[in-house]
């Protein structure tokens, strides 16, 4: 029984998803699985090993759920949330819970065996990004669903269970607490200053230029001032936009090159680390927000979160973001 339960003290929602414990694992902290292609359900020609596709960018003449695709989206076989059913809110004494309605999809980023998104062509990465946009546009039509989070786990230490390059999308009936905190913080700044905190951040970072990794016509890539993790990266659009699904084709063109460059820098500078990335975007049920900007966060998994971090909410980062940014700026990608 999938459901969401709310922590009554801090207001954080938790997904209870018993089926997730049965998902297969081909990625380990130590030795890679021998001949991983033999166990790869995401490989072209293994389409019968996944649920039927929701969306695929295909070559002309190819048929659904068969070979000939370039990027493919399927329901997660072991979902955190399920799209079927009725959204019901109910109490359990002092506690609140919601039926586990939502969507959990897997974006298979390439048909051949590849572990690194960064090794795909820029054109291919652009298609992956465009698939993200297409799925958000489609799922926001469901009135039960409120927010979509796109994320990628690369490597066992980052939570990946399969090493074939893929990302995921979970759409939920509530706004996650991290997004809510960003929305409230940026709105408070906007009400006080009358302008977007993201715009101010971009202007200051470009002016000081100590934490900027990359500056392009449409995006600024930086190591945040209060980075929680070593080599944490944030990709911010220069053109104000609160919803990723409203991204323009021109921005996608630039973002594809930006993402490849940043991931290649991390790969070369840090010896191909495990990492997570997430796209923070505004909730579906809100119009364009003047105070919030969608953005992408990338976290190389170089340190482990331990007792102090879990207990306090503080993070201990041994690498100043200024040093991390300089190291990445100086790292060649060819």
TrEMBL record:
Keyword Zinc: yes
Name of this chain's protein: Galactose-1-phosphate uridylyltransferase
Essential cofactor(s): Zn(2+)
EC number: 2.7.7.12
Keywords: Carbohydrate metabolism, Metal-binding, Nucleotidyltransferase, Transferase, Zinc
Positions annotated as active site in the UniProt record: 166
UniProt-listed SUPFAM superfamilies: HIT-like
Residues annotated as domain Galactose-1-phosphate uridyl transferase N-terminal: 4-176
Enzyme class, spelled out: transferase
Organism: Caulifigura coniformis
Matching Gene3D superfamilies: HIT-like
Family: Belongs to the galactose-1-phosphate uridylyltransferase type 1 family.
Record-level Gene Ontology MF annotations: UDP-glucose:hexose-1-phosphate uridylyltransferase activity; zinc ion binding
Ranges where the Galactose-1-phosphate uridyl transferase C-terminal domain occurs: 188-306
Protein's GO biological process: galactose metabolic process
């Amino acid at each position: 029984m999938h459901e969401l339960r709310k922590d009554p003290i801090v207001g954080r929602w938790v997904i209870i998803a018993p089926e997730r414990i049965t998902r297969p694992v081909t990625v380990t902290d130590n030795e890679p699985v021998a001949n991983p292609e033999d166990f790869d359900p995401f490989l072209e020609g293994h389409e019968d090993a996944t649920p039927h596709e929701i969306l695929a960018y295909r070559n002309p003449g190819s048929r659904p759920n068969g070979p000939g695709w370039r990027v493919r989206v399927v329901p997660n076989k072991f979902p955190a949330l399920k799209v079927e059913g009725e959204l019901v809110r109910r109490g359990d004494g002092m506690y609140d819970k919601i039926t586990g309605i939502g969507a959990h999809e897997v974006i298979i980023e390439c048909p051949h065996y590849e572990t690194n998104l960064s090794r795909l062509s820029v054109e291919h990465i652009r298609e992956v990004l465009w698939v993200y946009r297409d799925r958000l546009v489609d799922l926001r039509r469901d009135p039960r669903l409120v927010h979509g989070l796109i994320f990628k786990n690369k490597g066992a230490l980052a939570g990946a269970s399969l090493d074939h390059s893929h990302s995921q999308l979970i759409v939920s009936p509530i706004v996650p607490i991290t997004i809510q905190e960003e929305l409230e913080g940026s709105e408070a700044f906007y009400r006080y200053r009358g302008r977007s905190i993201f715009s101010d951040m971009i202007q200051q970072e470009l002016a000081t230029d100590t934490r900027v990794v990359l500056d392009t016509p449409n995006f600024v890539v930086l190591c945040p001032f209060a980075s929680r993790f070593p080599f944490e990266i944030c990709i911010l659009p220069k053109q104000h936009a609160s919803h990723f699904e409203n991204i323009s084709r021109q921005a996608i063109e630039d973002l594809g090159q930006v993402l490849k460059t940043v991931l290649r820098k991390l790969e070369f500078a840090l010896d191909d680390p495990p990492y997570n990335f997430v796209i923070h975007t505004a909730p579906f049920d809100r119009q364009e927000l003047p105070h919030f900007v969608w953005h992408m966060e990338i976290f190389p998994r170089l340190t482990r979160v331990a007792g102090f971090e879990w207990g306090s909410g503080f993070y201990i980062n041994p690498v100043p973001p200024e040093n991390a940014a300089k190291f990445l700026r100086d790292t060649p990608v060819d």
